[in-house]
Every structure is written in structure tokens, then in C-alpha cells.
Amino acid sequence: MTSAPTTTATRTATVRRVRPEDAARMRALRLEMLADAPLAFLETVAEAAARPHADYAARVAAVAHGTATAQFVADPGGRFVGHAGGTVAPEEPGLTVIYAVYLTPPWRGSGLLAELVDAVADWSRACGRPELMLEVVVGNDRAYRAYQRLGFVDTGVRVPHPKIPTLRELQMRRPA
């Protein structure tokens, strides 16, 4: 799945599924994600930086194909500028959980968020899962509003943050 390129001013990026050869660029984006938005992801920059390249290569290879988990990137031809993943929810076979959504600050507001979510949605539907769900840290109003604009609805469900017990996350859903 590859989308038509998004053009912002003179910049363009294509949204596509990761490929095994993307490991180094995925590692660079992952470190940026963790440094920029540490509450949004489930590991620290130090943990991610300590992982050897072989671990990144294995992770990327595992999500480059198949129906259980997939990752999509926004690729302008150099460093990746965006990411969104999707994974099956074993307790709800018709549901894909979107995870690790990120856009580098210069690309926010460019339309790439919608393209990344649409790529996950297309993959989810192709896998027979007609619904999407994601979680947002309560108080992250920018992300909350962005997901609302993409058709996600707050379900009212609140869950503890998996790493920081003093934080809560809210669940949002929409059709794939």
C-alpha cells in the first residue's frame, strides 16, 4: 500500500508500509519520536538507543509483511517524517489497534497524519478488521483534536498508562 505523495510547500512524502531495508531509518525516527514525545510511547530514548541494529532489523522485517502487525512510514526520500502502526486485538478479532503514531514537527498539519491513519485503515480492512482503536494520554488535547478530525470518537473508556501509573489514557474508535 502506497499513497499518492503529499506535497507541503515544496516538500513531498509518500506513505507506505515499511520494508526490511528501512531498519536504520526506522531507528532514527524511533529515537526522534521518543525524544520529542516521551509520554506517548512505551520505552525511553535510552532503552531504544541501547538496542542493537539487529533488533531494529528484526522488528522491521517482522512488520513489513503479514496481517497481525504492520507499520507505515511517511517517506520524503531521506529521513522518515512520520509513522503509524497497527496490530490485531486478540480479544476483538474485528479491531485493529493503532499505535506509535508520530509526525516530525515540521510536517504536522501537512495532511500526513490522515494518510498514515488511512494506510493503517486500508490494511485493517484488507485483513478483515473493520474497526480502529487508539489511545491518547488524557490532556494531550492536540492529538485528541487531530484524531477527532479524522473521525475518531472518544468512547469514554479510560485506562492506566502502561508505564506511568499517574497518567490515564482515553480510547477513541472509528470505522476502518
UniProtKB/TrEMBL annotation:
SUPFAM superfamilies: Acyl-CoA N-acyltransferases (Nat)
Name of this protein: Ribosomal protein S18 acetylase RimI-like enzyme
Source organism phylogeny: Bacteria, Bacillati, Actinomycetota, Actinomycetes, Micromonosporales
GO cellular component, one term: ribosome
N-acetyltransferase domain boundaries: 13-176
Domain of life: Bacteria
GO molecular function: acyltransferase activity, transferring groups other than amino-acyl groups
Pfam families: Acetyltransf_1
Gene3D superfamilies named in the record: 3.40.630.30
This protein's UniProt keywords: Acyltransferase, Ribonucleoprotein, Ribosomal protein, Transferase
UniProt-listed InterPro entries: Acyl_CoA_acyltransferase, GNAT_dom, YpeA/RimI_acetyltransf
